Amino acid sequence: MDLKADVSTAVVTELSPKTDYSLTVYAIYPSLIGDSATITVKTTPLPQVSNFRVIEEGLFSLRLGWTPPLGKLNGFKIFIPRSNRPGLTYEQLLPGDTSSHVIDSLEEDKKYTISIYAVYPQGPSEPVSLVGKTLKLVPVQQFLVQNATTDTVQARWASIRGATGYRLTWASPDGHIENVNLGDNFNFYMIQGLHTGSEYTVTINPIFGDIEGPITTVKVKTLESSAVQTLKVSAVSTSAAVVSWNSVPGATGYRLAWGPTPEFVGRDRPRQLALNGSTTEYQLKNVAHDTEYVLTLYVLFGSVVGPGISATFRTSPLGYVSNFKVTSYTSTSIDVEWSPIVGATEYRLSWNTDDGKPQSHYLDRSVLFHRIKDLNPQSTYTITIRAVYGNAEGPDISLSQLTAAVSDSERIQAVREVKVVDIGVNSFTLSWRKTSGASGYKISWIPFLGGEEKSHVVSAAATTFTIRNLRESSAYKIQVSSVAGSREGSAVLVTARTLDLPKVDGFAALNTTDSSTVLNWTRVAGVSGYLLSWRHISVLETKTEKLGPGFNSYKIGDLLYGRTYIFTIRPVYGEVEGPISTVYQRILGQDDPVITVQPVQATVAPHSPHITTASRTASIINTTVAQSTTKTTRHPVVVAPTKSVTTKKPPGQPRVTEAKVAAATSPRLTTLSTETTTQPRPGSLKIQT
To answer: Pick from 218, 197, 223: which is nearest to 304 by CA?
Structure first.
């Protein structure tokens, strides 16, 4: 080709790809041709197809995909294996805008080598090949039929790659057959409407388009019954009850729910818990006293909830008769007395011998003494007293007394001024006055709610005794009687309760932000850890964190702004949990408006819960309440502010979490001087002189 004198580059076109060429340039002058310069160069190959892959395998097909190369294309040629003539292939031309293709009519479970190349106006590119394999027709694996109830079973299986669906079939003993076709995304199905106590044959097979795979079979039997038949409540006390029921075959668990009946709403909150399938008894604890409860037990079969059964019970009222004792006795009478109890409307006094019929007498609440007459000489009587609260009766207190013989003119004096002078976590210390003529004293004790009775005899010189190795937070009945030789005088009964385990002191919520608070407390000596719980005041779900003994603070996040939360902590001593301490905290941030409350002098009763008003927000009140099992109700005296105070988050001011940034540094931009060399298109060369 001829070029002008001022031209220093030229493009040579219509060359063949991947071909060596010799190019020569001559300088032409007006009267002659100058020297020549020659170079040898090779054109580049045509771009190949990239990312050639198998997208989806089928039993008799393979779906292929690829990324087309840049440039003008006439189309693609793909080599497709012939399934009926091994070793031979045929090719198929596809349009240039195609990026996927399905090869069908292949054989099951067979490998195929497939090649593709792009077709340009200049000719075809180099081929790209891969090996694909069709799927094998296999049965369903891990087929389980379980969690049978009286009329349902649950079928589960592992999904099969390439399956377009599943056919599930079940047959009853009488030959009735039902089936259902399920999509490829199913791996679980509940079969319903079955007969009670019947054995069923359940089969499943995968479906691949129009082809059905092998069948997998299992047998299962429905239950005769899926409900609890017997639900009992026993050992009901002021704060606990034992619930028991019969075991249900096939049950994976139980769900027990309980709460006050409508008449007693507000006394306690509804609660529920899940129990494992081997459990047939559970003790309800920390229920409210003198409250009627309804409880319901549901049977669980996996995720299926079976029928429920309900029962009701009522807890005993708080309070029991104290200082119940025999003051004197004869051969035909026994005199008893006791101390008054707050809230009692009357007293029920009962007595009987081991083989006699019990007799009862109701006494007005103002009566604190009674003489039981017409008794048999030299007979042991069990005397019981309990306080009556309206229609309910409190727990009983009992003692035994032997009436004197008819010829017995001398009476053993009862021990006087029996007192509990010291109470510990695991001990009581008693004191009494010496009794004339006594050769010793017998001290016996038994847990208030029943258990093993223990006793100890001390000398006549003793006026104190310490009972040790008692359980913490437990009430005991203690009897002290004088002993004269082989004879024993009437016992004086006192009751006492051991102290609670040490509680956590100084429990408070500090450094509260929009969504978090820091809980602080004073460490308790000898603990093995702490159990920290919190929940929104109107939500039953509780979150719990177990902490080590070295903790004395903990930060809780993800809290809701403006909401009040209940935070509780209790010390843990090995397997035993100590008393609970509680704080209520409303979640408001540091930057909320400060509201001035007019000070009003108020008198707070002794031992009232300590109330602290935080200065940073007038609407946050940290109330620390240490709960124990002592049955004493205290009412704090709180004076309200003289003006109504409304606290709300300032509008239009987004909450900002404080973060310090040293400096705003602009991103560094680096300018690179890059020399770009343009590659010649296939079939062309650029010449620079």
So the answer is: 223
Pair 438, 478 in one domain: yes
Could you give the C-alpha distances from 408 to 153, 383, 404, 437, in angstroms and in order?
78, 22, 6, 16
Domains contained in the chain, number:
5
Non-local (6+) Cβ contacts of 64 within 8 A are: 52, 53, 54, 55, 78, 100, 101, 102, 103, 114, 116, 132
Backbone angles phi, psi at 35, to 5 degrees: -70, 160
Contact present, 111 and 182 (Cβ < 8 Å):
no
Whole-number Cα distances in Å, 267 to 286, 288, 302, 580, 655: 12, 7, 34, 19, 39
201 or 252, which is more confident? 201
Residues across the chain: 689
Residue 686 forms part of a structural domain: no
- Residues near 664 by Cβ (< 8 Å), separated by ≥ 6? none
The domain boundary, picked from 117, 136, 155, lies at 136
Q: Mean pLDDT lowest for which of 188-197, 246-255, 271-280, 593-602? A: 593-602
Query: How far is it, in rounded angstroms, from Cα 502 to Cα 578?
Result: 7
For the stretch 649-675, pLDDT in tens is: 444 443 433 333 333 333 333 333 333
The two three-digit tokens of residue 78, written as one number: 């793909």
CA distance 534 to 248: 35
Please report whether residue 666 resides in a domain. Answer: no
What number is the average pLDDT over the span 57-66?
A: 88
pTM of the model: 0.36
Residue 643 lies in a domain: no
7 and 109 inside one domain: yes
In angstroms, the CA 143 to CA 217 distance is 8
What is the CB neighbour count within 10 angstroms for residue 611?
14
Closest CA to 285 of 247, 256, 311: 256
Residues 132 and 145 in one domain: no
Q: Let me know whether 581 and 530 are in one domain.
A: yes
Higher per-residue confidence, 249 vs 408: 249
Interior/surface letters 530-564, b for 16+ CB within 10 angstroms, e for the rest: bbbebebeeeeeeeeeebeeebeebebeebeeeee
Token output for 652:
């239009």
Shared-domain flag, residues 474 and 353: yes
CATH, residue 397: 2.60.40.10
pLDDT at 483: 82
Last residue of a domain, one of 292, 314, 336: 314
Q: 3-state SS of 582-635?
A: EEEEECCCCCCCCCCCCCCCCCCCCCCCCEEECCCCCCCEEEEEECCCCCCCCC
Average pLDDT value over all residues in the chain: 80
Residue 533 reports pLDDT greater than 50: yes
Per the structure, the complete domain to which residue 471 belongs is given by 325-497
Percent of the chain residues past pLDDT 90, beyond the cut: 35
